[in-house]
Amino acid sequence: MAYITCRNLALGYDGKAIVSNLNFSISPGDYLMVVGENGAGKSTLIKTLLHLQEQQAGTIMVGDGLKPYEIGYLPQQTVVQRDFPATVWEIVLSGTLAHGGWRPFYTREQKTLAEEQMKVMGITDLKKQCYRHLSGGQQQRVLLARALCAASKIILLDEPVTGLDPRATMEFYGLLKELNEKGITVIMVSHDLQALSYASHVLHIDRDDSFFGTRKEYLRNEKSEVFRSTGGEEK
Amino acid sequence: MSGIITELQYYFSYPFVRYALVVGVLVALCSSLFGVSLVLKRFSFIGDGLSHVAFGAMAFATMFKLANTTVLVMPLTVLAAIFLLRTGQNTRIKGDSAIAMLSVGALAVGYLIMNVFSVSANVSGDVCSTLFGSTTILTLTGAEVTICIVMSVIVVAFFVLFYNRIFAVTFDETFLRATGKKAELYNLMIAVITAVIIVLAMNLVGSLLITALLIFPALSAMRVMYSFRSVVIYAAVLSVLGAFAGMILSILFSTPVGATIVVMDILIYLINCLAGRILRH
């Protein structure tokens, strides 16, 4: 049984589908990489999986103990966050709001959870630091810790290495690999060819003829050629 | 120095001076709390737009010769807050122009109404006091002070109870929505409370200068503080100090209340800019 199974999914806005006929499934322990041209519908897919918008057609089935809203999300950074006065602790802790119900203040359990996830990400010593003074790589670790506080089974990352230098990028991929080996399912939307080597499955979004399969199958498929010939940037 | 103190003691013996100080400090406190969120969410202009709407609504209310204008001004401003939030969420530019349209429209219509349906002989005086506050704060009745105290307690209680969620919705709305929380609801509550604060603050600084009460303390605090909690607390302290000092000065030197408070806020901002620069080196 898979965590998420999508059948004949069509995505788009205002009744117009930009992607249709999407069929894929995500099972526990998978590392799914989502690729596709700009405007192909990658962000729309993310929003749909996160229940931020409705699909135009088709079904999304959730199973294997996964409940709706149990996907830890690592969004792209917004303008607001760049100069936001907040400590690492405040941000990581805000991820635990997902479990708080209507209680106004954080419970001891929520604080313990935040501390644990900070330890996993190796950012415990940054606890009192200001988010905007951190390096790009450290900021991503903070957001990843927050995502793990919200949901511990699946994490969904939206182009997480944008703006990171090569070393930070490699470190971040290493971190994701560790998480994945611990059993956390990873869905990553990326432009970066390097990331392909970590993935177990690939979803290439292309209008009504998308590809879904294992990495090996993808590398044999003609769709991966566009991706390879331009050296990672698939514009 | 002792001369100033006796003079202050003389003024404090009047209830309307004490009322003005109480209301001023409370309004400054409330506005600074929510100002932090508005500034960080890039919603400063919503505050500005709403204050103009409040002016228009005030003019509209005086046309009906209502005894208590707040019953009309409050719902109209809250409605405008909901409207602005709705339009602002779609696209940036559409939201921007919606705010500009609404604020300048309300200003023009309000002035027109005040002129055509003038109830007093001194129209420009009325307009001036609605825009810049000046005298209204000194003519507060006991009932109005009570309303203000009750509203302030509600606003502060709301802020404390929802503090963690306000932080989350300010820092990352999409993430909060993705965890199944109603981010729109929190946004709506922030906008509605901002509208309430603006209507309360109109008596103090007038509708043109309210934005200053909302944004200056937050911006000042962000210059020196690094965590959200410390920014909020420091902004509240600065705002209360600014309002208190501004009111005392305006009493002593008979300057316009609203403008004096805003000048104090500007000074506080400049001092904090300097402090922030020194601390960073």
Automatic annotation (TrEMBL), chain A:
Keywords for the protein's UniProt record, in alphabetical order: ATP-binding, Nucleotide-binding, Transport
UniProt xrefs under Pfam families: ABC_tran (PF00005)
Limits of the ABC transporter domain: 4-232
KW Nucleotide-binding (keyword) present: yes
Keyword Membrane: no
Transmembrane spans: none
InterPro entries linked to this entry: AAA+_ATPase (IPR003593), ABC_transporter-like_ATP-bd (IPR003439), ABC_transporter-like_CS (IPR017871), Metal_Ion_Import_ABC (IPR050153), P-loop_NTPase (IPR027417)
One function term, GO molecular function aspect: ATP hydrolysis activity
Protein family per UniProt: Belongs to the ABC transporter superfamily.
Name used for this protein in its record: Metal ABC transporter ATP-binding protein
UniProtKB/TrEMBL annotation, chain B:
Species for this entry: Hominifimenecus microfluidus
One cellular-component annotation, GO: ATP-binding cassette (ABC) transporter complex
Cited Pfam families: ABC-3 (PF00950)
PANTHER family linked: ABC-TRANSPORTER METAL-BINDING PROTEIN, METAL TRANSPORT SYSTEM MEMBRANE PROTEIN TM_0125-RELATED
Membrane topology value: Multi-pass membrane protein
InterPro entries: ABC_BtuC-like, ABC_TroCD
Compartment(s): Cell membrane; Membrane
Name under which the protein is recorded: Metal ABC transporter permease
Transmembrane parts of this sequence: 16-36, 66-85, 97-117, 137-164, 185-202, 208-226, 233-253, 259-279
Gene Ontology biological-process entries: response to zinc ion; transmembrane transport
Family note: Belongs to the ABC-3 integral membrane protein family.
UniProt keywords, alphabetically: Membrane, Transmembrane, Transmembrane helix, Transport
Native organism taxonomy: Bacteria, Bacillati, Bacillota, Clostridia, Lachnospirales
Entry annotated with the keyword Transmembrane: yes
